[in-house]
Specification:
Oligomer: single chain
Strand content: over 45%
Number of strands: 12
CATH architecture of the domain at 24-146: Sandwich
CATH topology of the domain at 24-146: Jelly Rolls
Number of helices: 2
Distance between the termini: 129 Å
Length: 184
């Protein structure tokens, strides 16, 4: 009799897992707005079996060096996944006239991007299926550093040239020795 109840429990547990793994597709869009110098964070906790494609949108007004690091957290005990995401993938896309076009796509975990981006609208895509018993979790950071404009570089080089000219002039005057006063 015990075997009969154990068999029913196993069947019930299998049915629950079957329906849970079917999951449903969810998409979340996070809008960071116009970003400038600084760091921005994003992430999400997912339910077991949830298939997702999330988008993190951001805009740049000027050229900037953009670095991002996105990681899916995995935890398992004795081969049993407690937290995890299967088929984890990330991408960086730019908005053009025909919609978004891919700049980079990665399937590694963690994923990182480091690129000089021109002004425009961009988005990160993060996709996968939560496979852990307690679901899945990912976290990402976006670091933006402004790139100096051309006129800033010109002013910097002019200042450097003036300093070099003054140092050379000072060196020549020291080589000549002290100036003698003309007799009046």
């Amino acid at each position: 009799m015990t075997t009969k109840y154990a068999s029913r429990v196993v069947k019930l547990f299998s049915a629950v897992l079957l329906f849970a793994t079917a999951g449903s597709a969810h998409a979340v869009a996070v809008d960071l707005g116009t970003v400038s110098d600084g760091s921005y964070g994003f992430g999400r906790a997912l339910n077991f079996g949830e298939t997702f494609t999330d988008y993190v949108n951001f805009d740049l007004d000027t050229s900037a060096d953009v670095t991002s690091f996105i990681k899916s957290f995995d935890m398992s005990i004795f081969g049993f996944d407690l937290i995890g995401i299967d088929n984890f993938s990330t991408g960086l896309e730019k908005l053009g006239t025909g919609g978004y076009s891919s700049i980079a796509a990665l399937t590694s975990n963690p994923s990182s991007f480091d690129d000089l981006l021109s002004p425009g609208s961009y988005r990160f895509s993060v996709a996968g299926t939560a496979s852990g018993f307690f679901g899945g979790l990912y976290r990402g950071t976006l670091h933006v550093a402004a790139v100096p404009e051309a006129d800033t570089w010109v002013m910097l080089l002019m200042g450097l040239g003036l300093v070099a000219y003054q140092l050379r002039r000072k060196q020549r005057s020291l080589e000549r020795g002290p100036a003698t006063l003309a007799a009046a």
